[in-house]
# Entry
Amino acid sequence: MDNFKSITEKYKIQIPIIQRDYAQGRTDQKASQVREGFLDSIHEVLEKKATLHLDFIYGSIKEGNFIPLDGQQRLTTLFLLYWYFGKKEDNNINYLKNFTYETRASSREFSSKLIDCNIDFLTTNISGQIKDSSWFLAFWENDPSIRGMLTMIDEIHSKFNSLSFYDDLDKITFNFFKLEDFGLDDDLYIKMNARGKALTDFESFKAKFEKHLSQINEELDTEFSYKIDNEWTDFFWNYGVNNGSYLIDSFFMNYFNFISEMLYYMDNREVLNEQLGFKKIKTIYNSKKNILFLFKSLDNIHYISESFKELFSKDSYNKDKVCLFDKNINILERVVLGQNVNIQHKILLFITISHFTDNTINDSLKDLLRISRNLTNRIRHLKKGYIYYTNDLTFENIHYLLNIFINIINKDIYKELASNKLEISNSGINKVSLQFEVDKAILIQADKNIKCELFCLEDFKYTKGDIHNFLDHNISNLKLYNASIIDIFSNDDSLIIRSMLTIENYSLNIGWTILGEKYFFGKENNWEIILTAPNKLKFYKKYFNSYKSNANCLNKTITSYLSSNEERDWLYYFIKYPKMSSSIISLSKDNNIYAWNSDFTLEKMGGSNLNAYHQNPFVKVVADKLKHSSYPIQYDEFSYIQYKDLKIYSGQEGWKIHYYEVLILDELIDKYNLIESEEFYLLKDTEDKDRIEILSELLTEKNILQSI
# Structure
């Protein structure tokens, strides 16, 4: 049997990189119970001058060094006990310098300094005294092993401060087990940790990655080993503090995996169909260029994180920033925290990191991020029947997109675009989308002052960089659009729809039903496909000029149209009567979509198909006006007004008044020029009354019906 002193005098004990941090000093409930129980056992046997046997401690002997596989926690606690009683009882403990931590350089240096320091054991707070010492470096508090040792020192002092047990510590024994005696080696470290538990991903990663780096370049290995336990740790440590774990493991690995994934896509077209294994990581970092990129990204990580508040705005235009259209603009933080990050944001983050490896923040970065946002946002299509774009950006695009954008870092992107130098093959960007950016670039090259107005339009929530319908070389016109668009599209949907219809029918055909084609007129939070529809430049120019000429008032735009237009087509009714396009509460989901059988036999839909309820807007207007019953209906039937025993439908030529057990009085037939058929009377509008007014008047007649 051996004890800690005999082993330390014979070998240099090295706690290996692969081992976890010193866990017996953690402050969680489980660790506290283990620590208290272990010290109680030691206290009991030392008082009785008895022996405490700690089972097996085993590992490898290499060049006179003992590298433990199992026993790290117990050995560290024994080191601290020998240090405590040795210092307090003024014994020579220089042999303790043979106990070192290879897990972190900071742990190793702390252990060495601890042996030489002077301690006043009459004070109650030994750890506070240590941390106040001139030799103690502030960032060491980020090292979980050092924090654990300080906690254990305080616990030992609390339990043993009035006792002297140095000479009795040798009675704490264990069986010393050498792996070599049984044909085993340190490859076993990759499969096990202390007490036979699986290693954490982080512990396994550090050991394997350092071994890989040592085979590539010793200097890079040394740099990684030092920085991962020092300045790089500082950034990730804050996240460990915030979540109460005081560990950087998952946060560092989240970032490392992101960088590795993007570096893989820089060099490879094939999609990663599974998580990054270490075999793939070794392939990625066989390149010294990629290793240096990783290191530089970590060196600059504080600055990169801080840059996001200067680079991006959340959901609206902010001068000198790029709108991300997202509440959380710190994409780096989201990656570190392991939150879901879409492909576009991954690309924007990698562009940002790549820029900062050799440059500081500047306009070229902001311009590149803007163009990248615009182009990736337009890798999309509009499905039939839908009122929003479907994103088509996939991992198949990443290799090509990264190589487009990364290769023009710190260049004048608008100059590159204006000269048509971008190659977009296989990237998912189509020629039309690229041309949109070229058109803007040409305007900017001609007049740098136009940038601000273009960017403001791009950062509107319903354009998201797609402003081909608003491009104009005249800055005054762009200022008009910017001043108007936010005001206009903060109004009620019906008011916007009516004002836009004063120019022309702008609605989008989005599909078909058995009752006719489906048309979308626009909806709050879904105006994007209307504002970015193809070939609407002339329409929006007329629309905004009309808005301006009517004192920037949508109601005046409508009044002006009605006073100058005599034709009673469907546009007239939509513009005059707000309820034609107002939300119908009885419909399950009113998105301002209409099934269009004809201009007057149309149904406002309550969903994406006719299985949901739908209602004719002409019927709805009259029914609401007179407070009569009107019935939304399902499937391929038309909705109607119910008036006593009459069912009234809107027809292309006029109102179809269906009768069954009653007839309309003869005098009213003459008065309203009703055209009688076998199933219904046809009521048309007159020169002085439109169809809404004429039906409303007829249904307010005191006596209208007679029995058959």
About this structure: DSSP finds 29 helices and 23 strands in the chain. The chain has four domains: 2-197, 300-481, 491-617+626-638, 644-708. The longest helix spans residues 29-47. The chain has a mean pLDDT of 90.
